Queue: 2 jobs
Job 1
Amino acid sequence: MLRAGLALVIAVWIALPGLAQDIPDGLQAQMPDVATGRLAHILQRGTLIVGVKDDYPPWGMRDARGAIVGLEPDLAQALADRMGVDLELEAVTATNRIGRVNQGRVDVIIATTADTAERREQADLLQPNYYSSGVVVYGRVDANLTGWEALRDQPVCLNRGAFYNRALEEDYGVQGQYYASGRDSQLALRQGRCVGWAFDDTALAQLIRAQALQGDSQAPRYEVATEAILVSPWAVLVAKGEGQGDLGRFISDMIAEWHASGRILALQDAWDIPRTAFIEEQHALWRSAQEGRTICARDPQTGLHPVACLSQAPIRAAPDARPQDWVVTLHQATGIDLRAVATPYNGARLLEALKLTLSLSALAIVGALSIGVVLALMQDRLAQFGWIGRLLLLPQRLLITVARMTPPILQLYIVFFGLGGLLSTPGGFAPGAFVIAAVILSLYAGATNTIILSHALQAEALARPDTGTVARLPGAITRGFDGLVAACVNIVKAAGMASAIAVGELVSTVDLLVSEGADTTTLMNGLLVFYFLLVLGLLSLFKALRRRLVAV
Amino acid sequence: MGFLAGGFAMNLLISVLSMGVGTVIGVALGRLRYSGWRAFDLPSRLATNLCRNVPSFVLLFYMASMIPSEVVLAGKFYTVPIWIKATLALTFPVIGFASDQSLGYFTQRTAGLSGAGETFLVAWVQYFLIIVMASATASIIGADEIVGRANTLISQTGGDGFMLTIYLFVSLWFIFSGLLLTALVKGVATGLSRAA
């Protein structure tokens, strides 16, 4: 299918001779005679690995056979062809793309990445920029959203990892609901969990067009409800330190060549994307010549592209206040880097996340233990009534089996996106994400607790046959204690999964801060220490409880 | 169908490997803790605490960034597959669990409590199930398992109804294998108690 897509592009290439223009002097990208660094690594491997989006049609999407195709995969193919190596595409998301290129899992990222000051510190963003987009909000026509002011204090679905999220919350006052991908944000919007979805104008324009083509008059209509803000160019990424190496220089030259030859314009046409002013301007700019010399060619003296040909230094999504003195001292003395975290905005977010994690954990433990005790007692009692009891126990058995044997992350998806959609009325906010997460986590661990306790009750019945069900409970709890504690600890540790349905708990918030440029080592180690202590505290609590129990 | 089955095979591989390796190490740790040798007491308790307390959800991110994705041996490239990283992340909690559980087993056996072996076996199977469920989160770091493949299918096709169908279908796979596992263990436990 990739080949078919390529054939299409080549066909358009031939059909539009006006676009496939010659390449101006000094702008033909050439591979170095002897490659070094990552480029040498790629040549030796014989494969170029490029990270692209697979949920951003038609820049990067899956075709019917599951292969990734789109405008950006075509650019990746052009790079591989010129290098003379095979191409391997890997799907990446806004939150993991920078990590993957720095870890070396992919060589290059061409994945709708906006060029920001923060990202330039995290990876090498190549110049010139190859595309551009702004942020708009997409919402229901009947919601009557009239620009950004109408969205103040309103829940707005955001894709985790997008650079503009913070500016939208801080400067435009929206209440961000964070989802893992565009697909999830879109689903959440359709189910009325937010009034609008903030995303790139490029992608949403495509969505509106697709909706117009479908022409279903019954379905609610959606529109782009605001003007585009925070317009920023897109950059190709390589790992930190590779930008000025052979790989970075070669790709920069390729992008310059694409602009000059009109290749990206041709690809826009081939993928049925309306031409944008940015690409047309770049095309004109990179073709411009003065006295027979191509203006934008690399300066033979410095080896750099002229500054006038490159985009201006990127906007800072949100300027940070100067860190407090103790934060700086701590960093210098120990290497613990809290500079990005100790701002009022991020500090408040972490505190909020901490509160959510602790309350979700506490609720899940209480819920799981109560469910375990109640269901195990019921099972023990009803089992004494022969086949009638077994019949009465059937629904409970079914619930336990389903709750215990379906991965909680799937349960969250099914209840939140699937059943939640059926329950919610348009515009209303039926069962909140937090409640759903608490119930599912309680049921999941509660089902395991039920099994442990019923087994322990049976064992206890054999040891002390003359006692009743309730009287055997303390003994049963003592017997199954380790298992119960393990299940409770497990549920506290699994609470991070709630982030899949936009509960902004600690793990996902830390991940979010890291993707926004906070120090990875400090935050990840901090998270480990936090959980270590939390579980340690929890275990000593249970130990104290057990002593009490034995004393009784 | 075959596509999803292939993904589920990956879930099982990850779970079986981390359960196997984790149990062996964990039981050894538990035996050390039970032995009462002073020299081993603190290190084995500390190791257990570390393994038990750190969430596999966080470890997944850790392994993804700490282990290199390619190694060069004698000029040849070897990719470190993501499922190995996921397996490692899930092995740690198993070690913690097996250490605690085996300590309980040794203590109960010495105290002359009946059914210590059965208690261990039942808890172990519960935990195996938990690990199979946790293997579904490996898709977060890009492991090619069943939930990741389901998400691929959904982003290919789209539509709310389709999404729900796929997710329900995937959960059937987990439920079915869970039931199979439980039935198997019941058989074994019955066999054990008859033998005793």
Note: Chain B touches chain A through 61 residues (CB under 8 Å).
Job 2
Amino acid sequence: MDRSALDELLERARRREPDALSRLVDLYAGRVYGLLVRLTRDRDAAEDLMQETFLRVCRVIDQYQHDNRFESWLMRIAANLARDRARQRRRRGVTSPLDDDEVGQHGELSAPPLPRPDEALEAAEAGDRLEAALARLSDPEREILVLRHYADLSFREIADLLGVPLGTALARAHRALGRLRELMRYDQD
Amino acid sequence: MEPGLHNLEREIERARASLPRLEAIVPRPEAVARVRAAVAAEARRLRAGGGWLRAVRALGGVAAAAVLVFGLWGPRAGVAPDADSLALVQDWGQALDASGTQLRDTLLGGWARGDRPDAAAEVDELFRTLELSLERFEDL
């Protein structure tokens, strides 16, 4: 969707036209859901949070400043909700997001939905290795890489979101990338 | 950004660029449909609520305008303040001041923490000054 069409859609969404808001769901549900699954490691929770994200958007869209970064704004809302959920779970004493029952009833995260064509196999395997390695990182390490690599937030935006100085965010990302490479090499061997 | 951080960010971005692409994780169509329905319902609810709020605001605006018009063009009897009225206003102002000071002293003095033995008497005094200020207001 080009910028002017998106601006027009956002303007209509700002007026809370149901059609426009539904269209935003169609456009961004996949990206939001992907981010939430990777942050929570739980497909059921990701579905609930996806709904909460778009409801939040509906309520606060008049606060969105037109800076052509709608997707980042949306991703920040989703990431904040995922963080709130993680905080609540920590308070309740749920510490391991990778327990078997956390995967959800809709299957393993990296399960391929369809057989892949041969030419895409290598890339897909690399993607699977990355996915598996990400899953083995600590929550803060995975969070920062997913926010940068998947949600496409800048490190400044990530630092603001996490409430840490930019240097801390960069150091965490650097450490996480190092560990990720190690894990991927280990998986390959 | 400091040069050290800038270099670190460049190094991270180089390493990140070598990562393979992550596959899209697609939500179930029924989950998306549920979100779509929830959002549309919320939008309708907010629009209806917004309409009600606008009506209240409009009524408030009309009421304020009526008060203003009445104040400007309404009956003028007693508009010029006499000495008694001014004295009453001053009395009220002083009583209000005294009440406010009493409240502040009582609260800052630790009444809320319960570590003041004479707190009950002070609270009585607070209410007495408050009552006095209200009486003065009624006199107005």
Note: The helical segments of chain B are 3-17, 29-73, 83-108, 119-139.
